[in-house]
Amino acid sequence: MINFLRRTRQRLINESMNGKYIKYAFGEILLVVIGILIALSINNWNENRKNGNSEIEILEALKVDFTASKARLIETIELQERVIALSTKT
């Protein structure tokens, strides 16, 4: 494909077809721009996917932490209630 494009460009330059060469050059630039835009789009999609996965991991870690904190808090409340009950008996 590259050889075909190179031969076409050389032929247009050698035959002094400036109008056709300008159209060819514009088309080639357009193809490069489209390729860059596609690459950027894929990169953005991949970054968003990575961020989504990271967000899920963080939320799961928070859930585990909150569950553990809740269990410790319940234990502390039960301990305090026992202390209060024992202190009121005497």
Q: What portion of residues belong to β-strands?
A: under 5%
User: How do the SSEs run, as a string of H and E?
Assistant: HH
Helicity range: over 70%
Integer average pLDDT: 87
Number of separate domains: 1
Oligomer: single chain
List how many beta strands DSSP finds. Answer: 0
Distance between the termini: 96 Å
- Alpha carbon gyration radius: 35 Å
Q: Helix segment count?
A: 2
The gross shape turns out to be: rod-shaped
Reported for the largest beta sheet, the result is: none
Estimated structural class: mainly alpha
Low-confidence stretches: none
Structure description:
By secondary structure, the chain is mainly alpha-helical. The chain has one domain. 94% of the residues lie in helices and 0% in strands. The chain is built from 2 helices and no strands. The protein is rod-shaped, with a radius of gyration of 35 Å. It starts with a helix and ends with a helix.
